[in-house]
């Protein structure tokens, strides 16, 4: 017997403002055709003025609570994965607790950029396995529009804002690969790749939030290789193989990275949840958004095996094997 962190609720929120690729043609030397063909992105959502990461997170959290049939005080913990917090501190997670009216338990943020949701999910699963918490809400929420350099055509067309929330509950299980819940996780980071994707400001350096800088092409090559290997390692730890996978739920950075990774894993695109065309790259929010959309569309069904994988600044990358 063992305890598994089982998904019992999911929800998401996207800001009202939808920005099609054609908007960028007005101010930059770019085209809808270039953006679609190089990234697969067709549109993205941007938060309204004054709409903050915690606002998006709370809306996703409420959707997940409704989906699970729970109230905020039924949760023991809230973990928010974000690189775009409202303030330097307190954490977005404690702001979410406050806005939800949650008066018990604890909350903290995880910062692993685009891999943040994977790192947060692994932490939640470990807290549950250790008996520190039984019901944990894991949220990925970002307002990357606030750290974009609108004059840099190689990055500003790629990102979007949004939030997704997943509620996990500790449940008794047999301890076999057929269990529901988180079956294995694989986490990695390597600071030698710092300059490939970073923000050129911060509290302790410039005292400003800074702007996102990315070497897209070298990162692209690292992404396919590292995502395939972390997904494989996580499956191996779960005593499963690529053949057992019903759905890859990838970080939605670029359709060509998603296709390349699926191909290397030997899986057709029919087994991949794709939302990049509608959301762009929402960093830590992209996997819970894709999960929530995949469930809402009736694709992801109870008992199916999912592999979620992501890579981002750090570099930090990882995968989670989860039976829905
Ligand atoms: O979320 C974290 C993980 N993120 C990623 O993994 C992102 C990884 N990288 C990528 O998704 C891709 O590298 C990009 C979509 C960023 C770029 O695609 P690419 O096929 O690697 O293109 P490239 O960087 O090699 O650039 C090709 C050309 C360049 O022009 P030259 O030097 O060949 O004349 C760029 O200047 O495309 C140009 N370019 C653009 N042209 C029109 C760059 N951005 C744009 C643009 N519109 N927006």
Please provide a written account of the structure.
- With 324 residues, the protein is of the alpha/beta class.
- The protein has 2 domains: 2-173, 3-Layer(aba) Sandwich (Peroxisomal Thiolase, Chain A, domain 1), CATH 3.40.47; 181-323, 3-Layer(aba) Sandwich (Peroxisomal Thiolase, Chain A, domain 1), CATH 3.40.47.
- The protein contains 10 helices and 13 strands.
- A 5-stranded mixed β-sheet has the order 1-7-6-4-5, with helices on both faces. A 4-stranded mixed β-sheet has the order 8-13-12-11, sandwiched between helices.
- A hairpin with a 3-residue loop joins β12 and β13 (316-323).
- α3 packs across α4.
- The two termini are 19 Å apart.
- The model has no long low-confidence stretch (mean pLDDT 98).
- The site of oxa(dethia)-CoA has 21 residues, from α2, α6, α7 and β12.
């Amino acid at each position: 017997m063992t305890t598994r962190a089982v998904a019992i609720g999911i929800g998401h929120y996207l800001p009202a403002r939808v920005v099609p690729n054609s908007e960028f043609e007005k101010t930059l030397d770019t085209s809808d055709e270039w953006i679609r063909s190089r990234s697969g992105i067709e549109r993205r959502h941007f938060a309204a003025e004054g709409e903050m990461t915690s606002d998006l997170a709370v809306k996703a959290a409420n959707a997940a609570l409704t989906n699970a049939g729970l109230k905020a005080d039924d949760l023991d913990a809230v973990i928010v994965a974000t690189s775009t917090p409202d303030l330097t501190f307190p954490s977005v997670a404690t702001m979410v607790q406050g806005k939800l009216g949650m008066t018990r338990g604890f909350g903290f943020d995880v910062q692993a950029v685009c891999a943040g949701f994977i790192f947060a999910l692994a932490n939640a699963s470990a807290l549950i396995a250790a008996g520190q918490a039984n019901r944990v809400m894991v949220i990925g929420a970002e307002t990357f529009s606030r750290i974009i350099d609108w004059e840099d055509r190689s990055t500003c067309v790629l990102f979007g804002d949004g939030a997704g929330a997943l509620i996990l509950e500790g449940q008794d299980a047999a301890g076999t690969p057929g269990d529901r819940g988180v079956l294995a996780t694989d986490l990695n980071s390597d600071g030698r790749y710092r300059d490939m994707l970073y923000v050129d400001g911060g509290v302790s350096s410039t005292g400003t939030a800074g702007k996102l800088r990315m070497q897209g092409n070298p990162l692209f090559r690292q992404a396919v290789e590292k995502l395939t290997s972390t997904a494989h390692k996580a499956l191996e730890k779960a005593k499963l193989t690529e053949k057992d996978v019903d759905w890859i739920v990838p970080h939605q950075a670029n359709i060509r990275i998603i296709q390349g990774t699926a191909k290397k894993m030997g899986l057709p695109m029919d087994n991949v949840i794709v939302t990049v065309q509608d959301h762009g790259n929402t960093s830590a929010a992209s996997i819970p958004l894709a999960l929530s959309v995949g469930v809402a569309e009736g694709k992801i069904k109870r008992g199916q095996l999912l592999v979620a994988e992501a890579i981002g600044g750090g570099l930090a990358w990882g995968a989670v094997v989860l039976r829905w």
